[in-house]
Amino acid sequence: AYTNNPDRHLLNVRFTAPAKGDVTIVVTTPKGKEVARKDVKDFSGEYVGQLDLGKKAQGTYFITVTQLEDGAVKRIVVGD
Questions:
Q1: By C-alpha distance, which of 56, 54, 45 is closest to 23?
Q2: Does the global pTM surpass 0.70?
Q3: Which residues are CB-contacts of 61 (< 8 A; sequence separation ≥ 6)?
């Protein structure tokens, strides 16, 4: 996950899902407030997409990708 300069409110997301299943991508603040979410149904393979964090997207965020019982969390920092 990384920001898309100069449009920093867009977060580029890329991951590989080896098994077929529903995928949920959630971006939260350190306090747990959800700022973006995307649900992808019956997905497998390499995912490349973007999430809109809003116009004032600065600071630290956590992006969580889950599929079935598996998941990963990545910390990202969006700067000026």
A1: 45
A2: yes
A3: 11, 27, 28, 29, 30, 35, 53, 75, 76, 77, 78
Contacts of 41 (CB under 8 A, 6+ apart): 22
Alpha carbon of 10 to those of 45, 47, 52, 70: distances in Å?
Answer: 22, 16, 5, 25
Instruction: Give dist(CA 44, CA 57) in Å, integer.
Output: 29
Give pLDDT, residue 77.
86
C-alpha 3/C-alpha 12 separation (Å) is 6
Confidence of residue 42 (pLDDT cuts 50, 70, 90): very high
